[in-house]
Amino acid sequence: MSLVDLALAYRYMEVLPHLRRFRGPTEEHIISQAEQALGCVFPLTYRQFVRDRGWGNFGGAEFYGAPLVILSGRGVPDVVDMTLQYRREFDLPTDCILVHSRGISPFSWAVLHGARTPQGESPVFWWEPTEHVLDPRNIAASDFGAFFLSRVIEIIRLVRQFGP
Q: Considering only CA atoms, which of 100, 77, 92, 78 is closest in space to residue 33?
C-alpha cells in the first residue's frame, strides 16, 4: 500500500496548495548518482517521491531529495549532503539515510533504514544524533509512503486548527 499512501499524500497536498513547495521531478540519472554517492539503492516509495517531487517542503516540513547537483555542499534539502554530513559528524549508521527533519527540540530526523521488505521498502525511524543505533521503539512508519502521508495529514490538521 505504500505507493497508494504516497499518491494519497500528493492528493491531500492539493487541499492547501500554497503550502506545497517542491523542486521536481528528478531525472533518473540524478537519482542514480545520489544512490551511488550514498552506497545504497533507495527504497521503492522514497525513490518514487524523489522522482516525482525531487525535494522541498509542505507547510514548512522539509523532505530531502536529490537536487540537480549532487555533492554540492548545499545541505538541506540535499539527501546526499545531509546524510554524509551526519554519518561523519554524528555516527549516523551507514545503512541509513536522512529524509526529513522534525525541526522541534530535541531535534530528531526521520531516517530510512537499509533493511528491505520483499516489496523493496524500508522502515522509517525517528533518530537523534546522540543515538548510535536505531531504537526499534522509535519506528515512525513501515515505509516512506506511509511516513509522508502521516506528515502531510499532521500538517493539514495543524493548519486547520491554528491557521496558516
A: 78
**Residue-level pLDDT at 35:** 93
Q: Where are the domains of the chain?
A: 2-162
DSSP structure string for 24-65:
----HHHHHHHHHHHTS---HHHHHHHHHH-SEEETTEEE-B
2-162: CATH topology: SMI1/KNR4-like (3.40.1580)
Residues sharing a CB contact under 8 Å with residue 102, sequence separation 6 or more, in sequence order: 108, 109, 110, 126
Encoded amino acid at 49, one letter: F
For the segment 92-147, what is each residue's pLDDT rounded down to a tens digit? 888 899 999 876 655 678 888 877 888 889 999 988 888 777 787 888 999 999 99
* DSSP letter (8 states) at residue 107: P
Residue 59 φ/ψ region, left for φ over 0, alpha for ψ in the -120 to 50 degree band, beta for the rest: left
| Cα(44)–Cα(143) distance, integer angstroms | 9
DSSP at 127: E
Q: Would you say 108 and 135 are in contact if contact means Cβ atoms under 8 Å apart?
A: no
Three cell numbers written together for 33: 548518482
The whole-number pLDDT of residue 73 equals 53
